[in-house]
Structure formats: structure tokens, C-alpha cells
Specification:
Chain lengths: 621, 289
Amino acid sequence: MRRGAIPLFAVLLGLLALAFTGIPSFYLVLLGTVCFWIAQATSWNLLSGYAGYFSFGQAAYVGVGAYTTAVLTGRHGVGFFWTLPIAALLCGLLALGIGAVAFRLGSLRGEIFALLTLAVPFILAAFARINRSVDGGQGTSVPPPDVPGWLGDFQQFQYLLAVAVAGLAVGVAFVIQHSRTGSALAAIHDDEDVAEVLGVPTYRYKMLAIAVGGVLGGLGGSVYALQIGFVTVESVFGLMIPLFVIVMAVLGGRGHWLGPVLGAVLIVTLQDRLTSYGLDEWNAIILGAILAVLVAVAPAGLYARLRSRPLLALAGFVVVCGVLAIANVWGEELDWIVAGLLAAAAAAVLVRRRTTTPVPTPAAAVDKTDVDLPAAPLGEIIVECRGVAKHFGGVHALDDVTLDIREGELIGLVGPNGSGKTTLVNLLSGTFRPTAGEIRVGGADITTLAPHQIAHVGMARTYQIPKPFSSMTVRDNVATAIVFGRTPVSLREARPLADRHLATVALGHLADAYPAQLNLHQRQLLEMARAIAANPKVLLLDEALAGLNPAEVDNAVRVVRRIHSTGITIVIVEHLLRVLNQLATRMVVLDRGTVLADGEPRAVLSDPEVVRAYLGRQAHV
Amino acid sequence: MNVVQAVLSGALIGGLYALMAIGLSVTWGVLRIINLVHFGLILISAYLTFQLATSWGVDPLLTLLVTVPAMFVAGAALQWLFDRLAVSEFNSLLVSFGLLIITIQVAANIWSADFQRMTASVNPYATASVSLGRLVFPVTTLVAFVLAGVVVLGAHLVLRRTFAGRALRAIAQDSAVAGAFGVDHRRLSLVLGGLVGATAALAGAVFALSNALTPETAYEWFGIVFAVVILGGVGEVTGTLAAGILVGVLSGVVAVVWSPATAPFVLFTAIILALLLRPRGLFAIGAVR
């Protein structure tokens, strides 16, 4: 059992039992509304929070779910319980449709995805208005279903349904967050391209997240139809729904399952209090202000702040709530509680903590042992490039490159700027597809594979500019790569293995730091650790020594040697010929997209053609 | 004949869409801010035009003398705020969404949520029209089209021909490097924010000439205006006008051939297709960004 599962379950049971305690129906209605929004905000959070694909289209699920129930029960006399799965199914399919369109194109990210999802409810609303078999813009009333007697009256029944849907949604979010899917979505959130190259099937996980979000949103919408009793286009397809959901999730925090729950509780109770004091016209103003201020001040949300200063928040709640209760000059219990919650939230967000930036401890003892293994005997051909070309429009970045890489080699890939080195790395790792030619790894053609499939064939790479997952610790960066590597394991099993790889690159002492606390050299070592964590056969190092000082270069060279000695074939792109000369077992020189020279390092470097390519025609050797 | 009329009227209405979209497109493309409050500024200007004309009987077009400077200041103030907050491109969408909600609610609190329209006595333009043979064009759409043309032409010339325009394009590409070469990012973006605000005043006045106002209208603009921005290519001023005309013609023709209610359905479907095929916009050739 995960930490948090038992309290979560207890709260759910408590809420369900509450219906039968004879609590005033006002509270049941309020809690039912809270639960509706918890379900919606959680549904939204699966794709938009965990994976970072912000959506303005939550109203599409609410609308389709609500209309499914309204039309089927109100016009065709279908029993309410039958409409729940139908609504869930339709919304799941709708979500998959949106995903299939949007995720096929790498360019539909960020703002463009958000605006695309904004259009979806507009289309559906127009469809509902013009289509007489939906409602032709008239609105549809939902007849109350026959409630089994043991579930109490209609009021209690609605409440129980809302709690059940919210419980399901939060439970699903909880499970997802602690599963492989959660790790995958977090990696996609941080850097989707890197996640794909490390072996995460990003398309599949995004489809999963959007579909589950759609199903949960549709269920919630279906129950919502029952709560409002009369479904109109304006009430279910309106922009207030995405606004509420976004404000709640941003307020609560998007990375954690509890975030949207916190946000929903706070916003709904606040709205209720404002309405009860006749301040309806301030509702939207306060919501808008919360959104604007929070994004600018505390974009990570309440949950993270509460975790870092729980006592302060608790003190705020107790003091404000207690003082109001004791003084008893204003309001009633609910007012005091809401005021206390607001005080706690304000205390957590606004009070600045003295920033104690943890300074990474220096490496205890820099490992100077140099593994100088005898060059391993060359094995089978592992990578074959046959006539590989890559054109960008009229630019021929690579032309007819034919190259074999044997197991156990350490190849230095050199060439002047613009000669196509990085393009070749991108082709080998699947970031680009070749315009012509064939690349085989271990005999299998990889030119049509997605990057994550190429990773699973045994290819790993690093980036010239390190791209760590910024929301994870150094250890979890490496562990994520293990989880989605060639032999899948769970995150918990992966963490000790990650420490081993960190030791290989001499980063063990920084396992608990975050990437932002690392310097360039350490980040490049982290790139290497993450790349070897996937248990690759071939490692592509793209300018792994760029921008380092001489001592750091020496350290990096030792690390590369150590990795090579574990039996991984390495291709290293580098400008420092002096270093490569000692490191590489073979040197390949690219010039203007073609292979200029290929062979033993010393011989290649004294080749007059190579010298000319580097130093120009006039150079005297 | 009906279709010819629909095409031409649609093209003219497209002028209004372009007028609304151009400010959004420029702030997004040049300043890297997705400024949803722009819709709020358009709404407030429309209400100001309505209020000034109704209370004091001013000619609605003369109210521009008040609304344009007011919105210039508002636009510049917003830009100052965004600059101070230093939010990312995506977060600017959220911050401005929050600010838009506030603006719309304030408008609702002042002018109520009911529909408001200038009476014919203060608004001579609403009923006037120009006829060419059997084709009839309302004066309001002609005004919108001419204003859109002037704004687009002006913006195009400024961006392409002047030093300030070149500096703005440099900012669009890399504001830090532009700053290193002596481009005063802050002052230029304040001025640009102000000018964008001024276009909101124009769009608002034109909208108020021919439409009844309700605060919720601002949300209804969302879909169509963003469609114009994206189809035109973010930051592309001439592309925005072309996309506005295209969208106007498309919805006009669909409304006549099928029914007015199907127009948004067909339109948004077409936009999604366009987005999939040309994600950087139909008219983005040498885009600013």
C-alpha cells in the first residue's frame, strides 16, 4: 500500500457515510458541488497537469457527458444508470479523437494545443444547437431517476453519486501518479523529445492520459446533468468550466494528485460564501485575480508550498478560525472555516521563506583511477549505414554516408562546423528520418521506427546542451531512463540501480540534488548516466566535452573510458582532436555531409585532405 | 447573386475580424505574449463608444478621440505589467485569461449583463448602406474594412520600412541579443503595447456600430479571432488581413448555402484542418517570428 492510499480511502468512506448522518441538506449540496469540481479538475490534471498539455477544452467532456444523459433519459426514456457508461464511452472516444489529431503532429504543443482545445467545445456547442435530435438549442430536462430505497432520497443519492465519481477520479489519479504511466507523463512534461529518445512511448502515454481524462470528465458531466436538472448549451459548454478547472488546478498544484482537490475545495467553498453574502458579481473577479496573481507569484501551486511549510499554514488556519469562533461577532461555522482555509493558503503562498539554496557538496574524492583496459577485440558489426542522406529543403546536410560500426569500438566523429555530425547522431537516434538510405542496428532496419523503439533496440544518446528532467532529482532522472529502458522495471527497483550508474560517472554524491543545482560539467555527466541507464549497446555522445575546462575534460575522458570498458560501443562527436586522438579506437571525419576519412586516429589526422578541410586550402602542414 | 453578395459581405466582415486579430497577432509574434485581455479592451471600448454616444449624443465615430488615447494608455500599462511580471509565453496566456475574466465581470457590473445597443438617433451608421447595382453593403462593414486596411498597411510599413520596425523584428527573434545591440526593449514594447491597445479601440467602436453589446460577447470572439491569428501566421500583419477575409467569406458563404447555424461548425472544422496541414499559418511566408 502506498503512503496516502489508506487516508484517501478513509476520507472517501467518511464522505459516503456522511450522507446518512442526517446532516443538513445544504451541506450535502455544497459537498456534492465540491466533488463535481474535484472530479473535473482531476480529470483535467491527468493530461494537462501531469503531462503539461494545457487544455481549454474541459467543457467538451462535461457537455458531451451531460447531453448524453439528458437526451437519453429525457427524450428516449433510457434508465439513468445506463447512460453513465455510454457518456463515459463517448467522452473517451472524443478524447481519443482529439488526441489522435493533436498528438500526431509534434508542432501542436503548448499554446497551439491549448487554443485547439478551446475550439472543440465551440464546435460541439454549435453542433448541439443546430441538431434537433440533440436539442436544437432548446435545452433538455433530465427526469430524476428511480432511486433504490436504501440509497436514501434524491438529495442523498445525488451526493453519493458525486462522491463516488470524485473518489474514482482521485483514485485513478493517485494510481497513475505512482505508476510507470506517472513517470512517463512527468518525463513528457519536462522534455518530451528527451523522454522519447530515452525509450518512453510518448504517443501511447499521452493517448492514455487524454482518454482516461475524457472518461472521468464524461462521468462527471453525466452526474452534473442530474444535479442541474435542465441541460442547456450555455450551462455545459461555457467557458466558465475550463476557467474553474484551470484556476483550481493551478491554485492547488498540477504535479500532484492532491493539488486539484485542494484547489477545488478552496474555490468552491469561497464561491459559496461570496454568493451567500450577495457578492455574486465579485465571484468572477476574485477567480480571475487568483489565477493572474498565482501564475505570476507561485506557479507551482499550493500543494508544494503547503509541503514546505505545513506548520505555518496550520497555524494560520487555527488562529484565524479560532479567533473568529471565539469572538463570534461575524458569520457562522462555515464562514470561519473558509476564512481559516484562506488564511492558511495565503500564509503558505505569500510568506517568503528565507531562501536556503542547498549548495551541492563538492565531490568527496575525485576518482582518479584511470581504466586503461587493453582495447577489446572488435566484435560483430552492430550499426550499418548504407547510403544515408538527409536533406533539409535544398540543404544537403548529409549525402550518401556509408559507415559500419563494430561492437566495442570507440569512434571519434569529427569534422568542421556544419559538416553533418549532429545530423548523423539525430538520424541514428531517430530524431530525424533519413531522406534516403538505410540504417541497421543489430541487423534490424531502424529508419521507420519511432525514437523510443530505437532506444529499445539499444541506441542511447546525449545532447550537446544537456536536457535533464528539471522537476526530478538527479537519481530520478537516471531511474526514469531505467524504468523505460530495454528491460522494464518499476521506479522503486530502478532507484538503487540508478545509484550504480551515478557512481560510474562520479555523480553519486549529487543523487538527491535537482538539475538546476548542477554545473555544466555535472549536467553533462548526468546526461551520460541517463544514457547508459537504458542499458544500450551503442552510446552516442554529442559534444560531451564542449565548454569544459581542462580538468573537467580529463574527468569526462575518464568517465567515457569507464563506460567503454563496460562493453558499450561509443560514438563521440568532439572538436578536441588532441583528446580524441588518445581516446578513440577509430576516427571518422565528415566534411560537407560526406565521409572524408575513416580509420586509425593518427593516420586520419595526418591525412592531407583532413588537414585541408579543417584549416583551409592554404594551410602548410 | 446571393452567393456573390455573401462573398463580398463576408469579405467586408472579415475586415472586423482582422481588426480584432491584428493586435493579438503582433503582441504574440513580437512581444511573445498571448494577450487575452485584448478582447477585454475591445469590449470596454465598445461600451465606451456606446456610453458616450448615448449619454451625450456624440457621433459614434468621434468617440474614437476619447477611446483611442484611453486604450493606448491601457495597452501600454498592460505591457508594463507583463514586463514586470516577466512571465513566460505560456503563462502570459493564463495571467491574461485571469485579467480578461476580471475585465468582463467589471463590464457586467457597470453595464449589466443585458444586451445594449445604440439607438438609431445617435447612430446614423447602423441603418445606412451603399448599394452597387443589386449588391448592398452596410456602411458599418465598409468602415471596419477601411480601418482594417489602414491599420494593416500602417503596421506593415512600420515593421518593414522604419528603424523601429526593424528593432521590433529583432526583439521578436531574440530580445536579449537585440538588447545587447542597443535596442531599448522596454520602451519599444511599451509603445507597441499602446498601439495595440489603440487598435482595440478601433475594433470596439466598429463592433458597437453594428451590434448589440453584452459582456459575454468577448468570449464569442475567441474562436474566430484566434482562428484568424493562427491562419494568418502569428506576427504576420498582412497574413492576418488575408485570413480575416478568408474566414469572413467562408462563414458568409456557408451561412447562405446551408444555414447560419452551421457556419461555426464548418468554420472550426476547416480551421482545425488548416492547423493540421499548415500549423504555422496559411499565409506565413516570411513570418516575423
